[in-house]
Amino acid sequence: MTSNDKTIKIGVASIVLIAIFLPILLIGGTGTGTAGARSGGLSDSVPAEYRQAIIEASTKCDLLTPGRLAAQLFAESGWNPNAVSHAGAQGLAQFMPGTWQTNGQDGDGDGTADPFNPIDAIFSMAHYMCSLSEIMQQWISTASISGDLYDLTLAAYNAGAGAVQSAGGVPAYEETRAYIQRIRQLESQFTTAITFAGTFRPPIDTPMTVTSPFGFRIHPIYGTSLLHAGVDIASPMGQTQVATAAGKVTHADWLGGCGNTVIIDHGTIDNDHYETWHCHLSAFTVVEGQTVNAGDPIGVTGTTGNSTGPHVHYQINRNDQPIDPWPYINP
Length: 331
Prior knowledge:
The chain has nine helices and 13 strands. The chain has helices at 12-21, 48-57, 66-77, 97-103, 118-141, 149-159, 161-167, 174-189, 326-329; strands at residues 210-212, 215-218, 225-228, 231-234, 240-242, 247-254, 260-269, 272-281, 283-284, 291-292, 297-300, 311-318, 321-323. The strands form three sheets. Strands 1, 4, 6, 7, 8, 10, 12 and 13 form an eight-stranded antiparallel sheet that branches. Strands 5-11-9 form a three-stranded antiparallel sheet, with no helix packed on it. A two-stranded antiparallel sheet has the order 2-3. Helix 2 packs parallel to helix 5, helix 6 (149-159) packs across helix 7 and helix 6 (149-159) crosses helix 8 (174-189).
């Protein structure tokens, strides 16, 4: 930075089935879970101490991805949190002091926004990029500027929003154009492809005991015959649940009777689209937009939503319709 200007569709039918027909037997027990590292689709070229912050910060707006944010941070400072440019730009994200005054964020929650604190710098870059993208989008909509939104936002970060406006697009500065090109090229270096192979692993790392199978049953809360859209597996409160296949987190929030729910989109294989649901969690270890591999922690067992006790409710949707997941995770 050199200037001071510096979701896959979720089927409605599936949601209704989950919200109304969720299972729920009292499992009991106690336990603790461990949150493990999250890859987020980032390659090993990204320093481990910055990964979680990059993944979480990249969810601040649709423009960003973990790979894009990592590439921009590296282009700015080469991962040096103490970097200072000849122009006076500071830290991992190379903020000019004046720009930091209005855009610096307290990313790690210690009460201070410090450009030389790498976590603060990561969240501040994401915040500023998202703010700039809103400005660029507004100018595009009024035909004040033209071009690719991401390129324009990178140009605004590097040369200033005013320079982009004056040029009617990416300014013809050699430095700015080289900056955009470099980040575009670096993105692939910091990104690891997530590929769904069409197979699923168990959602927990302990022997599985089914407490309620897939299919119609007398609902333990409503007392009527309803479809149980997944399989219930015994699991103590706080046990770590993991992604059962590679994919992208499209939901990590409350979802009706499902309570705290993680939904992972696994893409399409053999013309069938797959997603998996983990319901009733007590806490999340992923965020929406994050990519995961099989075995990555996604949350911990709980009893939120329409539940009478802690357990795993695990569901596979194929083409937006729930199918029996047991044959897939216990072949």
